[in-house]
From TrEMBL:
SMART domains: PKS_KR
UniProt keyword terms in alphabetical order: Oxidoreductase
PROSITE patterns listed in its UniProt record: ADH_SHORT
MF-aspect GO terms: oxidoreductase activity
Listed InterPro entries: KR_dom, NAD(P)-bd_dom_sf, Sc_DH/Rdtase_CS, SDR_fam
Keyword Oxidoreductase: yes
Gene encoding the protein: fabG_2
Species annotation: Methylobacterium bullatum
Source taxonomy: Bacteria, Pseudomonadati, Pseudomonadota, Alphaproteobacteria, Hyphomicrobiales
Name of the protein in its database record: 3-oxoacyl-[acyl-carrier-protein] reductase FabG
Transmembrane stretches, start-end: none
């Protein structure tokens, strides 16, 4: 029997990168998965096709989780299709670097709306359906303690997410719903390729700081999330696991 047999999971931002790997890892462990996307419909449908081809269950649902009505519709779609909700992975996020001279109101609001408000709204919607044994896993970043230059706003969103997760772990604990965080280090994804980080001096710097001596891969993060989503992690809540190859 797999770790998540009979469970239903929603993965926000599940159309590519770490989110796609998480969706596949949860499905591999037996969960029916709702793959959320904001704009990449083709990417989400590819993830769903990969899951169903491997014998799993999945659907793709479009929603901008920074909008309350859409976050609610996402969760309702999961419950309508699969009858319940057991796991929420708040993976949806935006990362953009800007020096202090380059920060704008638009940059700030874009990052905080998705990375912070989106987590609050998705969790608010999910909490109405999560029961005893439910698991919320929030994807943060090791950048909160690596202190990368030009990442003030992005690191600020993840610091806020960490604090919110600690509060929600206590708030939802009486209902036996667990809330944990995974903080990846540098991971090779479509996003880090697009941002020009892969192959750059920045990537070399990250790897040089990593005791295990390599860049992370999406599966390195996904397996940790699958563990936290499962009953194997039943005694863990309020934890923040830094999945970074040893970066501290």
């Amino acid at each position: 029997m797999s770790k998540l047999d009979g469970k239903v999971a929603v993965v926000t931002g599940g159309s590519k990168g770490i989110g796609a790997a998480i969706a596949k890892a949860l499905a591999k462990e037996g969960a029916a998965v709702v793959v959320n996307y904001a704009s990449s419909k083709a990417g989400a449908e590819t993830v769903v096709a990969d899951i169903t081809a491997a014998g799993g269950k999945a659907i793709a649902v479009q929603a901008d989780v920074s909008k309350a009505a859409q976050a609610q519709e996402l969760v309702e779609a999961a419950v309508k299709r699969f009858g319940r909700l057991d796991v929420l992975v708040n993976n949806s996020g935006v990362y953009e670097f800007a020096s202090i001279e380059e920060i704008t109101e638009e940059h700030y609001r874009r990052l905080f709306d998705v990375n912070v408000l989106g987590v609050l709204l998705a969790t608010q919607a999910a909490a109405k359906h999560l029961g005893e044994g439910g698991s919320v896993v929030n994807i943060s970043s090791a950048i909160t303690h690596v202190h990368t230059p030009s990442a003030a706003v992005y690191a600020g969103t993840k610091g806020a997410l960490n604090a919110i997760s600690d509060v929600l772990a206590n708030e939802l604990a009486p209902r036996k719903i667990r809330v944990n965080v995974v903080s990846p280090g540098f991971v090779v994804t479509e996003g880090t390729h697009t941002a020009g980080i892969v192959g750059s001096d920045m990537e070399a710097g990250f790897i040089a700081q990593t005791p295990l001596g390599r860049a992370g891969q999406p599966d390195d993060i996904a397996e940790v999330v699958a563990f936290l989503a499962s009953d194997d992690a039943r005694w863990l809540t309020g934890e923040n696991i830094t999945a970074s190859g040893g970066i501290r």
